[in-house]
Amino acid sequence: TLEREEERTREYQVTHDSLTGALNREGFYLEARQKMFLDTTAEWVILRINFRDFKYINNFFGSKRGDEILKSTANILRIDLTQQDLLARLYGDDFVILTTRGRYREERYQKILNLLSRDVVETFYTIYIHMGVYYVEDPNMDISLMCDKAALAIEKIKQDSNNGIAVYTDRMMEKELHEKDVINHFKAAMAVDEFRIYLQPQVTPTGKLVSCEALARWVKADGEVVSPDEFIPSLEKNGLIYQLDQYVWSCAARTLASWKQAGHEDVSISVNVSPRDIYYVDLYHTFVTLVEKNGIEAENLKIEFTETTIMQNVDRYIELIRNLRAYGFAIEMDDFGSGYSSLGILKSISADILKIDRSFIEEAEASKKGHVILQSVIDMASALRMPVVMEGVETREQVELLTAMGCSMFQGFYFAKPMSVHDFEEEYFRPKNEEARMIHPTLEEYYFRTRRGNR
User: Are residues 188 and 144 in the same domain?
Assistant: First the structure.
């Protein structure tokens, strides 16, 4: 009857996505639960499929083109499905499929992802599609949690520049829970001053202090020191790293002010800038304010940029670094050689000091080719009047090799591990260590002479 037809239409609208004709979230949860209830022997699989940075499609080509891509995506995903499978669009560009182990073939879905990436978009903008796979262990589990586990698998490959497939493991959930725990405790830890700066010296071949790098450490109330590897990746992923970076910069500036009052103004501190800081902080204004507020010299607060950071927005960083150097800040190019655009970055960016990635010394020790490459980098830096700091130095043999190659400054466990500000001052600023602390005159003279020449 007409009434029955209208009722079916209403039911369809409630459970289906109007754009693609696939099930919507509510419809998928309902039908997936029914299928698992009726067939308890099947080995179910949840597939979660979405685009990387789909928002750029809408931004560049408009929402109409975005809708066309979503409809085409649903149609292509349907090609390999049977009547026993379910397809849904949960929201946005997020699709989910319920199938079984017997019908799921990874190689087939890899071809489907490649097809979607190549043929659906049909624009000059390359887009990647990722799929997370969850093999259902408990069919009584909430369907939404099954979908979440498939989504967690995507997190593992989300930044990969290809169309990838990842399978969920319990380790992923442990990592996710740990990440949430870190984020939940981060602000509280900041409020009760559980974060500290540790300083790692940068020294001459004879171990005389030149400068130091400020590194963040989380020191809990019970004295436990949390490794940066435990919290920095989580802060970066969740957009909170800028808060920690600002804290480190502020601590470094206050420490320099304290040293200046104590007569140790000849020692500088380097601080790091993370890739996302520029989107949250006015970096120029922030660093200038720190210098003026604390009454310190700009050249004593060195600012480190990695080439990875600069590559996020080259033009913007070129202007920023130019302005910072004009004010008087010393700029360090950190982890040089760890990326794929090192020489291009060096051509574009005027830096004062080059910090060479530790991988160079490892390769130099392992092969003649690696030795030649490292020597070329050091010679190039010398020709550009840039002092070189070698990171990750761990043995006397490395110090001797690098000294012979012309490297003038070292940072690494061979000389000292990162230490608290108190321990640093005890080690280098107490009268008994005054001779060991003094800056090597020729190196200091070389640094300031080359800095003036580079401006």
Answer: no
